[in-house]
């Protein structure tokens, strides 16, 4: 605005409204010389006279009449912008972008989104569903405010706040010979045709650890990118699998069984944030809602312990 200040705009608007330097100075809690100086500085900046002065009254010049609506619009936008920033600072306005794993996105995230939007209806939410490696990269790149994923292997650049442990469960059809067991071991699981998650996912790494316990290589009969696909294959007796216990929060299915595994393998699910950037108040507010939700439903999170 080339040296034009909000105080100068307030000054000419007040003088134009009241038709008096004395009354305008009182309204703005200024001395009359200070008010006159503000108007004079603005006139010098613009290169025009804004007021016609007489002994009885002050009125807008032709240039002043043309400039007054501009001044009012600029000041109104500035005031609204300041209000918006104050609301943003309080976490009452803005946009949140975050990414989460499918199993979290299908269970806890929708509930957290609903609760958050009840509390902060003016804040927009952008949710991305990804696997763990893309989530880590997006958090690091600043493409999202935070992620909800597994604990990273290299945590030097990110903060990780754990939410809960997501245990690996054996998954089979109700007709499978192991379906009614109280627990099964990996030595039992590897004897059956196995359906695996695609490579470079946290679930694939966990199941590979399970096979490593037995010393047998993983040779899956099928590989899928989505856990819902694996459940469908298992339900149709194409094979068995091992999937996270949080699936119980997503699916209410009678055509598959989830059985605890003796060797407790799990992944820590938590919130990933970048150490290079400060969280916005809005993002912090969403994470707080998510943590409250986890605590309120911790008894519903399946655990073999």
Automatic annotation (TrEMBL):
Location of the HTH lysR-type domain: 4-61
Keyword Transcription: yes
Keywords: DNA-binding, Transcription, Transcription regulation
InterPro entries assigned: HTH-type_LysR_regulators, LysR_HTH_N, LysR_subst-bd, WH-like_DNA-bd_sf, WH_DNA-bd_sf
CDD domains: PBP2_LTTR_like_4
An annotated Gene Ontology molecular function: DNA binding
GO CC terms of this entry: cytosol
Keyword Transcription annotated: yes
Highest taxon above the source species: Bacteria
Xref: Pfam families: HTH_1, LysR_substrate
Family label: Belongs to the LysR transcriptional regulatory family.
Protein's UniProt name: LysR family transcriptional regulator
Annotated source species: Vreelandella sedimenti
Lineage: Bacteria, Pseudomonadati, Pseudomonadota, Gammaproteobacteria, Oceanospirillales
């Amino acid at each position: 605005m080339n040296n034009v200040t909000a105080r100068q705009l307030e000054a000419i608007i007040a003088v134009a409204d009241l038709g008096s330097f004395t009354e305008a100075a009182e309204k703005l809690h200024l001395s009359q010389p200070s008010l006159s100086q503000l108007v004079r500085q603005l006139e010098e900046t613009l290169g025009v006279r804004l007021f016609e002065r007489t002994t009885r009254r002050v009125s807008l010049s032709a240039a002043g009449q043309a400039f007054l609506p501009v001044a009012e619009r600029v000041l109104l936008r500035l005031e609204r912008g300041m209000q918006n920033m104050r609301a943003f600072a309080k976490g009452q306005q803005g946009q949140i972008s975050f990414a989460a794993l499918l199993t979290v996105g299908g269970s806890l995230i929708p509930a957290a989104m609903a609760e958050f939007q009840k509390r902060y209806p003016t804040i927009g939410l952008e949710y991305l569903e990804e696997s763990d490696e893309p989530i880590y990269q997006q958090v690091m790149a600043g493409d999202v405010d935070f992620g909800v994923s597994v604990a990273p292997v290299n945590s030097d650049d990110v903060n990780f706040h754990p939410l809960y442990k997501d245990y690996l469960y054996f998954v089979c059809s109700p007709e499978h010979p192991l379906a009614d067991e109280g627990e099964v071991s990996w030595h039992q699981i590897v004897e059956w045709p196995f359906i695996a998650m695609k490579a470079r996912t946290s679930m694939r790494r966990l199941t590979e650890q399970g096979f490593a316990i037995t010393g047998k290589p993983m040779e899956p009969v099928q590989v899928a990118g989505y856990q819902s696909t694996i459940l469908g294959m298992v339900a149709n007796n194409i094979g068995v699998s091992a999937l996270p216990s949080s699936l119980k929060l997503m699916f209410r299915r009678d055509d598959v069984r989830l059985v605890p595994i003796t060797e407790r393998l799990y992944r820590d699910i938590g919130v990933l944030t970048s150490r290079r950037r400060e969280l916005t108040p809005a993002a912090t507010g969403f994470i707080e809602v998510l943590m409250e939700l986890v605590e309120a439903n911790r008894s519903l999170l399946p655990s073999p312990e």
